[in-house]
Amino acid sequence: MSIASRLHRAGKKVASAVAATAVTATLMVVGAGTAEAANRDWLRPDATGTCEWDASGHGVQRCDVWSPAMNRTVPVLVQPSQRGGDAGFYLLDGMRADPHQTGWTMYSDAPATYADSNINLIMPIGGAGTFYSDWIAPGNFSSSDPQVIKWETFLTAELPGYLHQHFGVNPHRNSIAGLSMGGTAALNIAARHPGMYQQAMSFSGYLTTTAPGMQTLMRIALLETGSLNINSMYGAIVSPRRFQNDPYWNMEGLRGKDVYISAATGMWAGGDWNVPLWDRIVGWGLEWVARNTTVAWELKARAIGLNPTVDYPPTGVHNWGIWTDQLHKTKGRVLDVMNAW
């Protein structure tokens, strides 16, 4: 980052801090009832000073949250609840998560969808190819600049404390959803931390990652996404960690939770015809794999006494069209389960 860029950002932080202080003082004067109504009107503190208003609008703030585990700040978008509600709704990105912005605002309309809701929308930025897990070794092949990946620690042990302190989010009243890679992670994280989540949802997730051929597909995807080494995630191919990070073998913690899973067929329809041909072909293959692994997960879940809600649209390729549909379709479910209307 250039010196000019740093000065510009510092100036924005100072201006934001002044504005936040003024708004906070006003809220203290007018009383608690108005403060709840104005829950989205003031910027919270973050690791670099004060959060910034995000370009996506609808009261969304961009906050830099310090992660001791990864020794860096992680940008997180937060849309505070409209009326001071303490429930949180985490939205995780997919394999090609952008390092500067979340797909939930770039390609979908999550903030607008939840603009009238009394739930805190939480959208971490980054994590491409990581499956939002804790890796046992640096993710890249560089010895001079190792990439430490501890996303699960960040999401479950570091970020909740920040959100509780500055946004009033209850660490034990959360829903979590994700698309594709993020769907895999959402079920894994919720199952391993059952005290944090009442609901977990997967949209086109890969839910049997140790099935024959899946490790090879994941290895190729990680190399192509960010030159990431899958062995750094799990260790050797026979490591128990591969099964511990597979939703198919990691579902006991979801007992008593509201679980929703969806995947389409990959068949083209509607807006899919506007997608470039090669992307349609790849999208068909990826969604076909997601559908098959999701169905396999459902069958095992029902066999052991879980009762997930499923949605299997007859058409749709692996892209933001079907994921935005699922975001809209599940809104009422999220608000009902989390009592956040």
Summarize the structure.
This protein is an alpha/beta fold and 341 residues long. Helices cover 40% and strands 15% of the residues. It has twelve helices and eleven strands.
- Give the tally of β-strands: 11
CATH topology: Rossmann fold
What structural class do you assign from the helix and strand content? alpha/beta
Quote the distance from N terminus to C terminus.
42 Å
- Can you summarize the main beta sheet? 9 strands, mixed
Sheet with the most strands: spatial strand order: 3-4-5-7-6-8-9-10-11
Query: Which homologous superfamily in CATH is the superfamily?
Result: Alpha/Beta hydrolase fold, catalytic domain
Q: Please give the oligomerization state of what you see.
A: single chain
H/E element order: HHEEEEEEHHEHEHEHHHEHEHH
CATH architecture field = 3-Layer(aba) Sandwich
Strand content: 15-25%
Helical content, roughly?
40-55%
The CATH class is identified as Alpha Beta
Mean pLDDT: 90
> What gross morphology would you assign?
globular
| Tally of helical segments | 12
Instruction: Please tell me how large the radius of gyration is.
Output: 20 Å
Domains, number: 1
Uncertain runs are 1-35
What does the secondary structure layout of this molecule look like, with pairings?
Blueprint: H1 3-30, H2 32-37, E1 45-46, E2 49-50, E3 52-53, E4 61-67, E5 72-79, E6 88-92, H3 103-106, H4 110-113, E7 120-124, H5 151-167, E8 174-179, H6 181-192, E9 197-203, H7 214-226, H8 231-234, H9 240-244, E10 258-262, H10 277-303, E11 309-311, H11 320-329, H12 331-337
Organism: Corynebacterium pygosceleis
Pfam family, one: Esterase
InterPro entries: AB_hydrolase_fold, Esterase-like, Mycobacterial_A85_antigen
